[in-house]
């Protein structure tokens, strides 16, 4: 399934708001997973996120390993 630009933009907006990020960039879709890179408000702070739309779960990359952000789900108004 290829996700719409509208859905991807909504995810970017939610990430920016919930994590106080300066910029979120959509990188790619691999299978069902959506990959994002983000810049924080502090100089030099960079983050990588992987979102699984079917499960509404979010992962962040830490030391080259993906870890789920426990208890966090993205609730979208625009459903796939």
Can you give a write-up of this model?
The structure is a single chain. This protein has 80 residues and is α+β, with helices and mostly antiparallel strands. Helices cover 19% and strands 50% of the residues. Strands 1-2-3-4-5 form a five-stranded antiparallel beta sheet, covered by helices on one side. The radius of gyration is 12 Å and the shape is globular.
Provide a quick synopsis of the model.
It contains 1 helix and 5 strands, in the order αβββββ. The chain has one helix spanning 5-19, and strands spanning 21-30, 33-40, 46-52, 57-62, 65-73.
Topology, element by element:
Layout: H1 5-19, E1 21-30, E2 33-40, E3 46-52, E4 57-62, E5 65-73
Antiparallel strand pairs: 1-2, 2-3, 3-4, 4-5
Pick out its properties.
single chain, 80 residues, alpha+beta, five-stranded antiparallel sheet, 1 helix, 5 strands, globular
Give the low-confidence spans. none
Number of strands: 5
Rg over C-alpha atoms, rounded to the nearest angstrom:
12 Å
Please give the share of residues in helix: 10-25%
